[in-house]
Amino acid sequence: MDEEYDVIVLGTGLKECILSGLLSVDGLKVLHMDRNDYYGGESASLNLIQLWKRFRGADTPPASLGSSRDYNVDMIPKFMMANGVLVRVLIHTDVTKYLSFKAVDGGFVYNKQKVHKVPATDMEALKSPLMGIFEKRRARKFFIYVQDYNESDPKTHEGLDLTRVTTKELIAKYGLDDNTIDFIGHALALHRDDRYLNEPAIDTVKRMKLYAESLARFQGGSPYIYPLYGLGELPQAFARLSAVYGGTYMLNKPECKVEFDDGGKVIGVTSEGETAKCKKVVCDPSYLPGKVRKVGKVARAIAIMSHPIPNTNDSHSVQVILPQKQLGRKSDMYLFCCSYSHNVAPKGKFIAFVSTEAETDNPQVELKPGIDLLGPVDEIFFENYDRYEPVNEPSLDNCFISASYDATTHFESTVTDVLNMYTMITGKNLDLSVDLSAASAAEE
């Protein structure tokens, strides 16, 4: 291979595919390789036979579960915020033409052993059984402040500089109780633990605004959307985008060894005795294990069921957030459910996931609070996987390594990682000031 590439991307996980698409659109010469013979890497969607092979080895799935090809089971299940950054990236790159989306039925939160719909507006707050009558009034005032808040209009700030005031101080001003703070912080602002309370309030306010804007976008029961046929469609859509702009794809390439010069800078990738030269490498942690460190572990259960999750208004697709405090844990637990309405299972079947940042080595015990909310299950699988993040200095070795996927069931942290990598590689920020109303054609 005599030609030199600007970037070689290793692995076809979602992050890597988005980056190869974005870099190809920018006119960079991209070669994309993967040791697997399928797209998606860690974030692939599996049919029933593939799922069984991965978790049960030689066993075959029972016939009662229906046809294998009717299943698209995500290995890293996540919903997308309807107004979030990932949707802006999809619109910016026009990838929406390869995909169909459908709104998710509901967003719920676990509070005092019960599941409640997440109130996201001042009107919903007034109806929610999560709060007593006086608390509702206080919460409504806070929601109105957040809805009206405009960074560039000091009149809406009520004299507070949210870049200096902590979230705790802002919430104290409205006298909200711990339960209310819990669902605002974890189910609306989607923080993963309670560190946000001591950080500037501007971040939480922006996150709450994103939730409300996403909710308003579809007038639906939740702020989330999800692709038909599962998330495995996303990496393939970005791969098609990359190919349209001249990107080259090679699947099923064993080994994929990254080569360095004497100064430690990347010079190419060798597979099957041939070396492709390049200036930069983008990859997931598995391709450069010497340049990453373990930062945690995700515990996860995958369940196949014949009914929706109880107490979620018979929602065919739903997210339930179990805030850490409600469980006496250090981090939140997430419950994600999808079904035949998004074409990820045969008619009458539901796929539920329970995931959390692992705090023990026993996923069965650790995930019990979430599993208890599922009701009877047809089949259940458990796994733990390690999370890694890069420790190298990309400016010295030209290696750009993505962080492993976390336990959250929404895409906000994933996209932040991709955009940071894009900026490090290209030296510029991606302009995502797109008109979201122009994108409604791509929506179901």
TrEMBL record:
SUPFAM superfamilies cross-referenced by the UniProt entry: FAD/NAD(P)-binding domain
PANTHER family: RAB GDP DISSOCIATION INHIBITOR, RAB GDP-DISSOCIATION INHIBITOR
GO molecular function, one term: Rab GDP-dissociation inhibitor activity
GO BP terms, alphabetized: protein transport; small GTPase-mediated signal transduction; vesicle-mediated transport
Name used for this protein in its record: Guanosine nucleotide diphosphate dissociation inhibitor
Gene3D superfamilies: FAD/NAD(P)-binding domain (3.50.50.60), Guanine Nucleotide Dissociation Inhibitor, domain 1 (1.10.405.10), Guanine Nucleotide Dissociation Inhibitor, domain 2 (3.30.519.10)
GO cellular component assignments: cytoplasm
Family listed: Belongs to the Rab GDI family.
Phylogenetic lineage: Eukaryota, Viridiplantae, Streptophyta, Embryophyta, Tracheophyta
InterPro entries, alphabetized: FAD/NAD-bd_sf (IPR036188), GDP_dissociation_inhibitor (IPR018203), RabGDI (IPR000806)
Signal sequence residues: none
